[in-house]
Amino acid sequence: MIQNIAQKKLYFIILLILLFFKNNVFDFNYYKNQYNNFKDNNIIEKNKNIKVAYYLTSIKFGGIARTITLLINYLSKINIFEHYLIIKSKKLKGEYIIPKKTKRISLFEKNITLFDVLEQEKIDILIYNFFNNDEIEKLNALNSTQVIYYNHSSFLLWIYKYIFNYQKSIYYAYKKSKYVLSLIPLENFYLFEKWGIKSILINNLATYNIDLIVPSNLDTKNIIMVGRAYDPIKRYDLGIKAMKYIVNEIPDSKMYIISNIYQKYIELIKNLNLEKNVFFSGFTKNPEIFYKNASLHIMPSLSETYPMALSEAKIFGIPTILCGLDYLALAKGGTVIIYDDNPHTIAIEAIKILKNYEYRKMLGKQARENMKKHKNQLIIKKWVKILLSVYKRDNKIYTITESEQDEKISENEAKKILNNQLKLLKKRIPFFKNISYNKFKYIFK
What we know:
Blueprint: H1 2-25, H2 28-40, E1 50-56, H3 62-75, E2 81-87, E3 103-106, H4 107-110, H5 114-120, E4 125-128, H6 133-140, E5 146-150, H7 155-160, H8 170-175, E6 179-182, H9 185-195, E7 200-201, E8 222-226, H10 236-249, E9 254-258, H11 263-271, E10 278-280, H12 288-292, E11 296-299, H13 308-315, E12 320-323, E13 335-338, H14 343-355, H15 357-371, H16 376-392, H17 411-428, H18 437-441
Helix pairs in contact: 10-14, 13-15
């Protein structure tokens, strides 16, 4: 009897493991076939892997570091590539984990340049994650190394940083570059075409696998804001001020800011008498406990590109309030978008969600459903396609597959989004008060 129970348990564990690998990790046959095809056709030399390098400041802080380390970890499971991490800083404590077989080179410790490394290591492909126009110009002149420019910014970010001049913008450099990755459909399929930039749409990898995450049950009155509180672009003051109205209607509501403490906001919390309702969690690389216990996510940012916090909240089935961020690839599904910078407007939507369980449950379900289109397995397949096309130096990289068609946006949708953003800019920046739609559309041309 005991033996039968033990056998059943073992069988169940093996079944779970098989299901995990079948549905949630990789289609290994796909990558094996890709690898063999390229070897057989002499596109990749018989005893050589493709050398891919990633250039970063460090792998300790920020969404870019998390995105790139996730990419290295996933691609390392495929025996086509040899990975190099080129960082500006020395090794830091508490970095994101990467495979041990990744060759790590610190420019600071070796006292060498990026170009020295590319030449010495004979790097085939560099994934570049900065916005240095002079450096991009030099990289574009290379013959032996192909460069992919991973654009982690939005054109609106530069506008909110008061860069309106095309010659000074990153887009002037991108126009002269062969391989640019875009994270925003509006830019990739509409604006970049008008500005003379050729780009490929990509989604960022998610921290969590949606098939392995149990969503929040949405039965708390907990609100979260996730990210760097000190960054003025995030505008967490709007969320904190909204809590003053929310608490009046829902006294037991709590807001958790998943970030290092920012003294300016501590003072704001005290001034609004919200010490019992708004809390800083401190920086954490494992925010799961907060997602599991949250019923609402607020993102009041001026600008975002492909925010990890939004993908994480949606994976956990948490509704999100966005302030005008309708151009994001993740903008649809489980979100409420407001075109107002008034904390009271944010509070009205938050109260509506927190007071109606069926409504927030519906939004949470929509959020999870939307994220199924952004599964890591699909994104990694696209990365393999991109890297192999770049290595081969063909133009198949720009071919839109059938599964990518739904990521395209129509001209009418693009026009609607741009008009929405222009209306917001007219409220936020005096320079745009008299700017027409046509001038705005070609601002970086």
